[in-house]
Design a protein that fits this description.
The protein is α+β, with helices and mostly antiparallel strands. It contains 7 helices and 21 strands.
Length: 402
């Protein structure tokens, strides 16, 4: 009996030891799996900073390069509104912004919420949001880089990543489910137009956002409402790109209508002068400038072929406006008056951006300008009147170098 009891106790002890061993082994395996699942990879092209506290203003304790894999210890909401991961990289422990990393392949996000930064992985299935249309305003990417997404959400699919200093056109504003503001933007990537959303704190606006201005109920002659707004945006963006503005240039916008292109260019120019022969259109242009808080645009009533030579030949002309750095012309189908073309050649701007609705008169005027010391550099066709034979053509004409 004693021998049997001793064997029984030994068996129980062995069972308990085995059970405890399995528990410890399971705990270790869970820790290993948890460790593997809580890793993130740096996606920012220029790497990212690791900070002492979960704040953009906190002391920097280290840095990591793009594609570095970090171990996530915790997730917190920073005082600056960003979501931060507490991470470990080698001997360095600190905090990194969630929008600069994405969950490593095969892993999962930390259990306490996910990334909210809006520049992380390329998620799918984001819910659509309501977008408020605004008058077009140019903006510059102010962070190291920014991602254009297909919807105003951090879960939106990444359409394209843009570097710092990229100029975008803001034409809408939206708010996501977390209360963050996003801008609906468009820009030219080579010859391809890209449209999407970027978070507001990744760009710097060149002007104030205002609700989209309605077209006048009785449009002035030669200023009809355009049937394809998306193509109209493409036209403005191309004109801005061809103008090559840096913020110091003087621009003359001839046949300016209600000042749509003038005010768009004014956000990137030092001074803009618009010329239009229709009194009502000039009145609307001045009202639009005032409503949008644009103070560096001035409008003159009269025919371009009369006003331009008058300013060029007058001794009382504003010397800061002469000669212009850039001239933009958007004439009616009959093209530019020959006197206007001659004055443009005499004023010798570095660049001329010609917006034409008639290829025949464009070809005629290009010959005069090219014979006058200019050369055709670039061109683009915009299908502003779909299902018709009419197109808008934009060309860049540049002064020949001696």
């Amino acid at each position: 009996m004693r021998k049997t009891n001793r064997l029984g106790w030994k068996n129980k002890t062995a069972v308990l030891a085995l059970g405890l061993g399995l528990f410890v082994w399971g705990f270790i395996m869970m820790a290993i799996v948890s460790h593997a699942e809580s890793q993130v990879k740096v996606t920012s092209p220029k790497g990212a900073n690791i900070r002492k506290e979960a704040s953009s203003s906190s002391e920097r304790v280290g840095g990591v390069e793009k594609d570095s894999v970090l171990t996530v210890l915790n997730q917190v909401q920073g005082s600056d509104g960003y979501t931060w991961y507490q991470v470990k990289s080698g001997d360095t422990t600190g905090y990194i912004r969630s929008d600069l990393v994405e969950v490593s392949e095969g892993g999962t996000a930390p259990s306490e919420g996910g990334t909210e930064g809006g520049e992380g992985g390329s998620g799918e299935g984001a819910a659509p949001v309501d977008v408020m249309a605004v008058n077009p305003v140019s903006a510059t990417v102010s962070s190291d880089s920014g991602k254009i997404r297909d919807t105003a959400s951090s879960e939106g699919q990444i359409l394209e990543e843009v570097p710092a200093e990229t100029v975008l056109t803001v034409n809408g504003q939206a708010t996501d489910a977390d209360g963050r503001t996003w801008y609906q933007v468009s820009f030219l990537s080579g010859e391809t137009e890209v449209k999407g959303f970027i978070r507001y704190d990744y760009v710097t606006l060149a002007g104030e956002l205002t609700p989209l201005t309605e077209e006048p109920s009785d449009p002035a002659p030669e200023e009809p409402s355009e049937p394809e707004p998306s193509e109209e945006e493409k036209l403005y963006e191309t004109a801005l790109q061809y103008a090559g503005l840096t913020g110091r240039e003087t621009v003359w916008d001839l046949y300016c209508g209600i000042g749509t292109i003038s005010l768009f260019l004014a956000q990137r120019a030092g001074k803009v002068y618009g010329v239009e022969s229709v009194p009502q259109a000039i009145e609307d242009a001045r009202k639009n400038a005032a409503q949008n808080g644009i103070v560096n645009a001035e409008f003159f009533e009269g025919k371009a072929e009369d006003v331009l030579p008058q300013f060029y030949q007058s001794e009382d002309a504003d010397v800061d406006a002469l000669p212009p750095d850039v001239i933009v012309v958007d004439p009616p189908r009959k093209g530019c008056d020959e006197r206007c073309l001659e004055a443009m050649i005499q004023m010798r701007p570095e660049r001329i951006v010609y917006v034409s609705c008639d290829p025949a008169t464009l070809a005629r005027d290009l010959k005069i300008l090219c014979d006058g010391g200019y050369e055709l550099k670039r061109g683009r066709v915009v299908d502003q009147f779909c299902h018709t034979v009419h197109v808008e053509t934009i060309v860049l004409i540049q002064k020949k170098t001696s």
